[in-house]
Specification:
single chain, 184 residues, mainly alpha, Rna Polymerase Sigma Factor, Chain: A, Arc Repressor Mutant, subunit A, 2 domains, 0% strand
């Protein structure tokens, strides 16, 4: 008996682990190969696909899937792969820039120590954010997702994403003010 796309989506929304597992087994390998075609790294491709399925299960009740489930999953993988590639380009360019900058600095060692301390404080401040605020901040800043993409993946409104980002930035500014003034 063939089950319709809508029936599958509804069953998963109603917590059918069996249906979700069937979807996972049906698409996991195909989506992993699709992600691999972008990333050329199977471990990273599989990690993205696992993340997609985890996100889907966690947000299953609030997601509004208007296309086929297959299209939705492929689009999520596509978007995540693009974000990974974009983030990789930014990271490479930043590393090139910082290497030149560091090597030319007369305070090379102290700069490294100060930067590591600042990074620790930033990580600590981010981890201290409320859960939803932290998730949204990381998706925006580290995964480089647009507010609308974050809202879609989390099943919330773009305005909520905007408000949570404002809250996160306000908290981070307040917690990192001492390091900011030292850096200047």
């Amino acid at each position: 008996m063939q089950v319709s796309n809508l029936e599958v989506i509804i069953a998963i929304k109603q917590d059918s682990e069996r249906t979700f597992e069937q979807v996972f087994h049906e698409y996991y390998e195909k989506l992993s190969h699709y992600a691999y075609s972008f990333l050329k790294d199977m471990d990273e491709a599989e990690e993205i696909v696992q993340g997609i399925f985890y996100c889907y299960w966690e947000k299953r009740k609030s997601l509004e899937i208007t296309t086929s489930l297959k299209s939705y999953l492929y689009k999520m993988v596509y978007n995540r792969c693009l974000n990974v590639k974009k983030h990789e380009k930014v990271r490479i360019e930043y590393q090139k820039y910082k290497m030149v900058d560091f090597c030319q600095s007369p305070n090379y060692t102290s700069d490294i120590i100060e930067r590591r301390e600042l990074e620790k404080q930033i990580d600590k401040a981010i981890e201290g954010l409320p859960e939803q605020c932290r998730i949204i901040f990381k998706m925006s800043r580290f995964d480089e997702l647009k507010y609308s993409e974050i809202a879609e993946q989390l099943g919330i409104s773009p305005k909520t994403v905007e408000n949570q980002m404002g809250k996160a930035l306000k908290v981070l500014r307040r917690q990192l003010i001492d390091y900011y003034t030292v850096a200047l």
